[in-house]
Structure formats: structure tokens, C-alpha cells
UniProtKB/TrEMBL annotation:
Pfam families: DJC28_CD, DnaJ. The lineage of its organism: Eukaryota, Metazoa, Chordata, Craniata, Vertebrata. Residues 40-107 form the J domain. Residues 342-363 are annotated as: Disordered. Gene3D superfamilies: DnaJ domain. InterPro entries: DnaJ_C_subfamily_28 (IPR052573), DnaJ_domain (IPR001623), DnaJ_homolog_subfam-C_membr-28 (IPR018961), J_dom_sf (IPR036869). SMART domains: DnaJ (SM00271). SUPFAM superfamilies: Chaperone J-domain. Residues 342-355 have a biased composition (Basic and acidic residues). This is J domain-containing protein.
């Protein structure tokens, strides 16, 4: 239909036939009818001239032709004039595909609008006017299905409400926990600051000597008749045990371990002192025998240390195993120091004896000289 015919139509007819005319033109554009020049562009890109190629295929064909004919490709078939035609054909094909895509989209939207108008004007069946369009079958069946749908929907709403409430409660609880943590941290900081202040004041007082002239300095503490932090029965039992010399098991075990290691060190130190420096072959064998016996005793002592660590009430009071290597090194070092002290003492005594002999000789010589002078 030409434009003159459209102008002669009545306004109402023009308003009615214009969308149809545009739709027919768009459908003709999207139907695949292409011009001779566009077909030539497809042939240059070595694509079918029916216009059925998609943008990916067109791009792939253009890249393939560019590798062959681009002036900078370095290929023997490079041709600048031919590549300019390829580039122009590529642009023309892309523009055609874009117009075809927009035309198809517009046609689809027009069809959807026409279907919506038909649906809105078509008479609806009466059984779609109730039960919110839920269910199928007879009215009684649809009614039962609709009731079940309402029950399920109500259940979902209740569950969703509970989930939101739980999330809200969790958020409130998290905020309370964060607030409590901040308050606790603040209290700890205040407590530590007060403790540091008190400790600084005590150290300053000790440096000034304020605690040296106290009335109970150097005396044992008096027994408390009352302890507000302990019930009277426990307090009296503790007093009875202390008065009778009772000591906890871990204190007795600690004392026994320390006394045992001190005796072992003293015995091995005496053995090393009896041997020469440097040791002869026989003395070396004796020293190795004593070291082996010392190692056996040290292993038994370490077992006592393990038992002590099981009963001690404080982690800071626990003991570590005694090392054979460290003990032997300590004994040898102590022996060297003792031998050096003996050598120094011996040299000092020799010097004293020499000085005493020289002094006595000078005194005798002076007495003889005086007697000779007197006789003269």
C-alpha cells in the first residue's frame, strides 16, 4: 500500500491500518530478502548469500580473511585494496544483522501486544473467576485443591515469619554479646591499670625505704584466729596440720628431688676431683663408669619429676627433666674452676713464702751488720 493511499484514508482507518502496515514491512525485512549489494558483501566474506549467518560466523569469517589479506599480516596474499573491500563488506553485513534483529524484536513485541488485546477482549470462562485460578477438575475438586493451597500458603507465611523473628533475635543477641565483650574488656583494662598503679606505688615506697622500719620486719607472721574467706572447720583443721609439721605431698616430693640431685652432683664432683687433669686411660674408664651410673640415677630421678608434675597444683611449679649432657658440662666446668682456684691459691702461698723468706733474710743480714758495727 503506497503512501498516497494511506493519506486518502480516513483518520480512523489510518490509525487502524498503520500498525499493520509497519508490521508487514518489518516482517518483509526479517524474512531474509536482501539486496544485490548485500549479497556481494556476503560473497566477499565467503559466506552464504541467503543471510542466514549469525554474528559469530560473520566475525569468524572476517578474522579469517584479515589473516590472509591484512597489509600487516606478513602473509604472501596480503592486499590493502582487497582488505578495504573486506572491511566494508563486514560493516555492511553487521549493519544488516543489527537491522534484522531489531525488526524481529519489534515484530515479536507487536505480536505479544495483539495477543494481550485478544486475551483481554475474549470472554473468560466462569470457573476461572473463583479460587484464584487454582486447581483443575470439577468445582468440588477445585475447592479442595484451593483449601490445600491456602493451608500451604499460610504455613509458608508462618515459617517465614518465624525465620525473620529468629534472625532478629540472633542479631539482637549478637549485639548484646558484642556490648558485653566491650564492657568486659573495658573493666579488664581498668583493673589492669589500677593494678599497675598500685604496683608502681609499692615499688616507689620500697625504693624510698618505707618498708624497712616496720614493726614486724624479719619476724614470722602471726597465726590468724579468724579467716573470713574460709569456714571455721577447715581453718581449724589447717591450723592443726600446720602445728604438727604437715606438708603437702607435692612440697615433700619437690624437696626430695632437689636434695637427690644435689647429692648426685656432689658425688660426681668429688669423683672428678680425684682424677687427674688431663685424665689417663684408666682414669677415663673410671670416669665413664661413674657417668653411666649417674645416668641411671638421673633416669630414676626424671620419673620422680613426672610423678611430681602430676600432683603439683600449679602449672608454674612444674619441673622439667634433668639433662645428662647439661649436668656433665656443669660438673666439668665447676671442676675446671676449682682447679684454677687451687692453682691460684698455690701460687699465692708460694709468693707469700718467698716474701717471708726474703724478709727474714734481710732481717738477719741487718742484725749481723749491726753486730759487726758494734764490735768495731
Amino acid at each position: 500500500m503506497s503512501c498516497l493511499v494511506l493519506l486518502r484514508l480516513h483518520n480512523g482507518d489510518l490509525r487502524r491500518f498503520l500498525p499493520l502496515y509497519c508490521s508487514l514491512n518489518l516482517r518483509a525485512l526479517s524474512s531474509g530478502a536482501i539486496s544485490r549489494r548485500l549479497k556481494e558483501s556476503y560473497r566477499i566474506l565467503q559466506l552464504p548469500d541467503d543471510g542466514a549467518s549469525d554474528p559469530a560466523e560473520v566475525k569468524e569469517a572476517y578474522l579469517r580473511m584479515a589473516k590472509l589479506y591484512h597489509p600487516d599480516s606478513g602473509a604472501p596474499t596480503a592486499d590493502a585494496a582487497l582488505f578495504s573491500q573486506i572491511e566494508e563488506a563486514y560493516r555492511a553485513v553487521l549493519a544488516h544483522l543489527a537491522r534484522q534483529k531489531s525488526a524481529s524484536q519489534y515484530t515479536q513485541s507487536m505480536e505479544e501486544e495483539e495477543e494481550d488485546k485478544i486475551k483481554s477482549n475474549a470472554p473468560q470462562h466462569r470457573h476461572y473467576l473463583s479460587f484464584e485460578g487454582i486447581g483443575s477438575g470439577t468445582p468440588s475438586q477445585r475447592e479442595r485443591q484451593y483449601r490445600q493451597f491456602r493451608v500451604d500458603r499460610a504455613t509458608d507465611q508462618v515459617l517465614e515469619y518465624r525465620r525473620k523473628e529468629m534472625e532478629k533475635a540472633a542479631a539482637d543477641e549478637g549485639a548484646m554479646v558484642t556490648r558485653d565483650a566491650r564492657l568486659r574488656s573495658k573493666q579488664i583494662k581498668i583493673t589492669q591499670a589500677v593494678e599497675r598503679l598500685v604496683e608502681d606505688l609499692i615499688q616507689e615506697s620500697m625504693a624510698r625505704g618505707d618498708f624497712q622500719n616496720l614493726s614486724g620486719s624479719g619476724k614470722p607472721l602471726n597465726k590468724f584466729d579468724y579467716n573470713p574467706y574460709m569456714d571455721p572447720m577447715t581453718h581449724n583443721l589447717n591450723r592443726i596440720l600446720i602445728d604438727n609439721g604437715y606438708q603437702p605431698e607435692w612440697i615433700v616430693a619437690q624437696k626430695e628431688i632437689r636434695e637427690t640431685i644435689a647429692k648426685m652432683r656432689e658425688r660426681l664432683q668429688e669423683v672428678r676431683a680425684r682424677l687427674g687433669e688431663p685424665m689417663r686411660h684408666s682414669e677415663t674408664l673410671q670416669w665413664k663408669e661413674h657417668c653411666a651410673a649417674f645416668a641411671d640415677e638421673l633416669g630414676k630421678l626424671n620419673k620422680k619429676v613426672d610423678n611430681f608434675n602430676l600432683i603439683v597444683p600449679l602449672m608454674s611449679r612444674q619441673m622439667v627433666h634433668y639433662s645428662l649432657k647439661r649436668e656433665l658440662e656443669k660438673i666439668l666446668k665447676t671442676d675446671q674452676l676449682l682447679r684454677q682456684e687451687k692453682e691460684q691459691e698455690k701460687e699465692r702461698k708460694q709468693k707469700e713464702q718467698m716474701e717471708t723468706a726474703r724478709t727474714s733474710q734481710n732481717t738477719r743480714q741487718g742484725l749481723i751488720t749491726w753486730m759487726q758495727n758494734l764490735l768495731k
